[in-house]
Amino acid sequence: GSLIEQLTTEKYECMVCCEVVRIVAPVWSCQNCYHVFHLNCIKKWARSPASQAEDGNSGWRCPACQNASMQVPKTYTCFCGKVHNPEWNRNEIPHSCGELCGKKRQCLDCPHLCNILCHPGPCPSCPAFVTKTCECGQTSHSVRCGQSTKIHCSKVCGNTLNCGKHSCSQVCHAGKCSPCQLTVQQVCYCGSNFKEVLCGTKEEFSDGFGNFSCQNICGKKLNCGRHNCTQVCHPQPCQLCPRLPQVVYRCPCGQTPLSKLLELGCVERKICTDPIPSCGKTCGKPLSCGSDEFIHTCESLCHEGDCRPCSHTSNIYCRCGFKKKVFTTFFPRPFLLPIAAITFMCDKRCNKKRTCGRHKCNEVCCVDTDHKCSLVCGRKLNCGLHRCEEPCHRGSCQTCWQTSFDELTCYCGESIIYPPVPCGTQPPECKKTCTRPHDCDHPVYHSCHSEEKCPPCTYLTQKWCMGKHELRSNIPCHLTDISCGLRCNQMLKCGMHKCKRICHKGECLIDEECKQPCIIPKLYCNHPCMAPIAAISIATKLTDLQLGDSVEISRLITKKEMKQARLQCDEECLALQRNRRLAEALEIDDNSDPFNIRSSGPKYSDLLKEDARKDLKFVSDIEKEMKMLVEAVNKGKHAKKSHCYPPMNRDHRRIIHELAQVYGIESVSYDNEPKRNVVITAVKGKSICPSNTLTSVLDKEMQSRPPPPIPHYKQTDKSSGNSGLSKPLKEEPVIDYFDVQD
């Protein structure tokens, strides 16, 4: 009645989708718990991994009662199952056909069918009256057909027990009588063992010789009186002696009849102990070690008894058939399996893709043909919170089945989504103004949102630029660093120049000195100095250093330049340390050069040095590339490494070839002019980095040269009307102040 009322008033909810079951929606009803579901919902649920039974072979489980079913519902039927796609009638129960139910009632012994109209839920109990006997069958009573209680009397049962000899002594009871509890003694078929069992146990198998088999050798004397039975304890009489003359008709190998051997002069057998004549041929009986490819046979002459061990070998294959082994078959036959039953597993891993298309099988010695993936998918579902729990599969995952029964609201709580809320549902849109706290006091124009951070404030304000040059208008509130586009023009630390950068944030110079040219006029010519301020500062400090004063140069150069100025130890440093330790052990003076280390080094030709002085930057770049190439090939895995230079003139190519000889690098020129280029190749163990590069040699030579002569000036005649100094006899030498530090 509750189901009928809820379905009629559309208040019944489907347990899968948590939606109301409409009177015109196709439904399915569980025949165990009678819960009603949407037909489409129950189809999806039956295909989902969450619905599968624990053993995996019992079908899918009902969401309500967990009763397992093998078949997935496909059609929409009425509650009694007689009408497909029943039409809704206002005067009838929803989803029913309006006819008599006619289903068999739950009571197993009720022969009457349900006589009410098609309905949901279980059928009511049968109202008919019938005569039923008690459990022992000695008395009878008139009761309702649907009554589930059993009738018991106070008399003794008296039914015959399973043994067929004794009767039941219990009071009227339900079900079968208990087995007879009396014990009897039984003997085995061969008569050597006895045991006590309950009365009626296995007595029907007695054949006059015993009741059970003790699984030992029978050992009874055969009819010949000379041999014993070799069979396991058996119920029938023992067989005839297998060596009787009337039983044996052929030689031991079975190839020749005894009648033919008697014609050849063999002695006729009289009793079973007489030897069986041998035909003298090869035995030829098939041995158990043979395989399907080659059957091994006994190579001994015709003989009695078991055959000798096999002397052949057989090929056995692994489980997947990839590898084979040679198997020696000289062991005694009774203890060996057939070769076809012997196998082994190889170490080959299967590289085939599984059914999911994502993972490899990777099984050792695989014999699987389907390669089903047993891993869990584990990919994130569309909600972004849960992961797919299905077996690894192809294609997209299904939508998340999780559902929340809490209300989902926006931040301010004005907009609400009522449960059930599918997992991954975004908060509802709200048209109210945002009520979150903001950094500024300007009016808020954006709506309520679910994001933690509010959109930037776009209210137009007036703000100063970063250099405080001008007050800018119509600037959005969220902008902080505003540049007016003008030059900074703030005085630098040198007190002589102003910052030339565009309006910027922070200090003009950070951890460095001014590098703008000096504008102070020179003493003799009144021309501006034009030397960078930092270079003049370094030169001044080094002059103080020559006079014996201490100088702090960390403020004159940047930290990056100091870091780049620090040299890294190379192989030459390691060699010097090793030689220094060896010299200390041998007590050799440090000033001496017993290993000729200081005097050793590469020899550069005068022509190469002269060309290098003309283009020192080109030579320095070439040496850096060669050094990097040599270090890369010596530290890497490859035996050779090459580098291709762009097309260049003949003089530059000659410099590369000569430097390649010093570094132990192979160099070859390719193509024709003007696209002729050089390719160098470094070989591991052959190419080395010299201790003194060409650029370092040129630097040392420049340091050892005397300073340039001071230029002489000629005084002009006073009558010429020109005061001061005239032009020098020679052009004034250009002094690079950055070379002073060398």
UniProtKB/TrEMBL annotation:
GO terms for molecular function: DNA-binding transcription factor activity, RNA polymerase II-specific; RNA polymerase II transcription regulatory region sequence-specific DNA binding; transferase activity; zinc ion binding. It is found in: Nucleus. One of its GO terms (cellular component) is nucleus. InterPro entries: NFX1_fam, R3H_dom, R3H_dom_sf, R3H_NF-X1, Zinc_finger_PHD-type_CS, Znf_NFX1, Znf_PHD-finger, Znf_RING. Residues 11-68 form the PHD-type domain. Residues 700-742 are annotated as: Disordered. Belongs to the NFX1 family. This is Transcriptional repressor NF-X1. It comes from Aegotheles bennettii.
